[in-house]
UniProtKB/TrEMBL annotation:
InterPro entries: Prepilin_IV_endopep_pep. The chain crosses the membrane at residues 7-24, 36-54, 61-83, 103-121. Gene3D superfamilies: 1.20.120.1220. Keywords: Membrane, Transmembrane, Transmembrane helix. Pfam families: Peptidase_A24. This is Prepilin peptidase. Residues 15-112 form the Prepilin type IV endopeptidase peptidase domain. One of its GO terms (molecular function) is aspartic-type endopeptidase activity. It comes from the Bacteria. One of its GO terms (cellular component) is membrane.
Length: 163
């Protein structure tokens, strides 16, 4: 098992539940909580320090900064929610720089699948399972926490399994 796969195997059991929480709260409340974002940062801060060589650990903090700046610019233009930008930034250190292109494909696939599943559920009787969710009546707005959480979870699981 490579060092990257070992790290992903350790991160996944902690990060996947955070991602599920993010998907749930974004669908229910149309917001990604700061506590979830902070939890991801803490998981990387503690786990990354133990799992990566110092230079790699520090370099990955730059991933967070770069993605946060890009996310803030997209948020300022109205193209991305603030919670979405913060979650993307908090998740960035978990992604190896060499995997960025594949993660974009994974984000696209999860985005399309999440959008289709959410809109299908919203238009059917499935909606009655959680009638109070704000995302059902959010017009064109979409809870990006669903595909963002799915993509980060899938990435860690794929890497942990040697993919």
């Amino acid at each position: 098992m490579t060092a990257e796969a070992t790290a992903a195997a350790w991160f996944a059991p902690v990060v996947v539940p955070i991602c599920l929480y993010v998907a749930f709260t974004d669908m229910k409340q149309m917001r990604i909580t700061n506590q979830a974002v902070a939890a991801l940062v803490v998981v990387y801060a503690l786990g990354g320090a133990l799992l990566f060589p110092l230079s790699e650990y520090l370099w990955r903090w730059l991933h967070l900064v770069v993605v946060l700046v890009i996310g803030a610019l997209l948020n300022a233009r109205g193209a991305l929610g603030a919670g979405d930008a913060k979650f993307l930034a908090a998740g960035a250190p978990f992604v190896a720089l060499s995997d960025v292109a594949e993660v974009f494909y994974l984000l696209a696939a999860c985005g399309l699948a999440g959008f289709a599943a959410h809109r299908l559920a919203r238009a059917t009787a499935l909606r009655r399972l959680a009638p109070e969710w704000e995302s059902w009546d959010s017009g064109k707005r979409f809870p990006m926490g669903l595909p963002l959480g799915a993509a980060l979870s899938a990435y860690l699981i794929i890497i942990a399994s040697g993919g």
